[in-house]
Design goal:
172 residues, alpha+beta, seven-stranded mixed sheet
Length: 172
């Protein structure tokens, strides 16, 4: 069973430890800087919503949802200009699995599918994710979860591959 719980201040030391792991460092920024971004979220200075995902009662990773309209026109968007190319009603998702042993086991796909269901139930229609195209494991998992490359943005987003969740008949 997969569940999501909001990140609390008490979770920050564990998150920092996860962020120092080599499989996180490969795709995420400096752990201390990343942790400060999460602190901004939980203290209300950033509208991004951070969660710990829990699998069978055990904390298994981190996932967040960010709101495109809240990022457009900001200093952050100056660093990542492709944000201005996204529809303002979209939300973005980022995730990372805590333990390396759980990589390539289908966990990321299952977590993402469950999180997308939750976002759809909350009324979000446009859901994007932006892996590094070199992170083939993530791209494969995201495709399995129903995300597809956004053709009009291919080649326009630097070191990010913009993918959007597609609603397929009979599947959400």
């Amino acid at each position: 069973m997969i569940a999501f719980r909001p990140v609390l201040a008490d979770d920050l030391p564990v998150l920092l430890e996860w962020m120092h792991r080599p499989h996180w460092r490969e795709w995420w920024g400096d752990p201390e800087s990343e942790l400060e971004h999460v602190r901004d979220m939980i203290e209300g200075r950033d509208t991004t919503q951070p969660f710990i995902f829990v699998v069978d009662g055990k904390d298994a990773g981190y996932i967040q949802v960010w709101f495109v309209k809240d990022q457009q026109g900001t200093e952050f968007a100056k660093e990542i200009p492709w944000l201005e190319l996204l529809p303002p009603d979209a939300v973005g998702v980022d995730l990372s699995i805590a333990d390396r042993a759980n990589l390539s086991q289908g966990l990321g796909t299952r977590v993402l599918q469950a999180f997308v269901r939750r976002l759809r139930q909350d009324g979000f229609k446009r859901i994007v994710i932006d892996p590094d195209p070199a992170n083939l494991r993530a791209v494969k998992a995201y495709r399995k979860a129903g995300f597809r490359e956004m053709p009009d943005l291919l080649g326009r987003t630097g070191d990010s591959l913009l993918m959007e969740h597609m609603i397929m008949e009979g599947v959400s």
